[in-house]
Design a protein that fits this description.
It contains 15 helices and 13 strands. By secondary structure, it is α/β, with parallel strands linked by helices. It folds into two domains: about 190 residues, Rossmann fold, CATH 3.40.50; about 170 residues, 3-Layer(aba) Sandwich (Rossmann fold), CATH 3.40.50. The strands form two sheets. A seven-stranded parallel beta sheet has the order 3-2-1-4-5-6-7, sandwiched between helices. It has a six-stranded parallel beta sheet with strand order 10-9-8-11-12-13, with helices on both faces. It is globular and about 60 Å long.
Length: about 375
Amino acid sequence: MCGVEGVAREARRGPPAILHVMWGFETGGAEMRLVRLANALGRAYRHWIAPISGRDSAKRKFEPGVDWEIVETPRKSTPLEFARLIRRLRPHLVQTYNWGAFDAAAGCVLARACPLVHTEDGFGADEAEGPKARRVLARRVVLPFARRVVVPSSTLERIALERYGLPRGKVERIPNGVDCLAFRPGRNDALRRELGVGVDELVIGTVGHLRPEKDYGFLLRAFAEARLESCRLVIAGEGVERERLKKLSGELGLSGRVLFPGVVEPAPWYRMFDLFVMSSVTEQMPLALLEAMASGLPALCTDAGDSAWMLDSPDLPAIMPRGDLSGYVKALRRWASDERLRREAGERNRARCEREFSLDRMVERWRAVYEESVEKR
């Protein structure tokens, strides 16, 4: 972790410095997007990461050519304290992430030292149906002073324009992208053998933080209700819901059929799956779904965020209404019983990723935002 004064001295020389403020720098969607952007941009920018919670495990994902530092945030997370931090650091640009870093966004406005780019990636379970009134008001006050407000989904774009009252020219929608070389089709029989999964067993899997808004309890109940023979369920990730989910798995009689491997390097695990599943009550443009699509997997998701648009498969049992347990169970059974359907859907998803959601396209859009914002400093 780098001291504030040392970082401030570094700000006066070298490439432009971006101060990224977020609640935690772990392996979530927004954090991994930042890592992939930084890896792709190389030494064009310096990236100062300020995780308010102190958690910074995603720093291990930076490639050797990336210039990055972890910066200590103020003990009191208030706009005034963040304004003081920004004045001392003197970055060329501040980028804040979601509501968890909104005090830093307000602090950047107070500091009047550099442009602000704010990103909105989604909501927690407490805002599954939309943002709270107090938070809407705060955004309406602060975000007009941002240089750009960047969102990945059409839902968030509409909210920014209509509920936050932002002008069209200030809001930029940049869909998430995926590395179609790192995430590719294949079959990982070696990992199956390592985990004791039979070659002929069907593996249904998902990757993500074990948080309430992911509603993995719904997924476990649907898996139990489907009563699929020779089938395993993999829920990869860590989070506050882990112990509750493991307990529920036992209560549903699924012990031995559900794997909780914790945090994993996702690419090899997708190649072990036969079907990717999501059960979220709130999402926007989930990176895990893009990774699964690029890996050539069919997908079954709830109708949260832009998932239906991403899959663009109204003719397939790919999207189910949130909370529709019987519909989700029926869809699971259909996917499990039809190997040809799974193969053709996976090929379609891979082709759509290559055509619409490439990492290169996303990087170029973000590069333009950074260049334009730094120039206006």
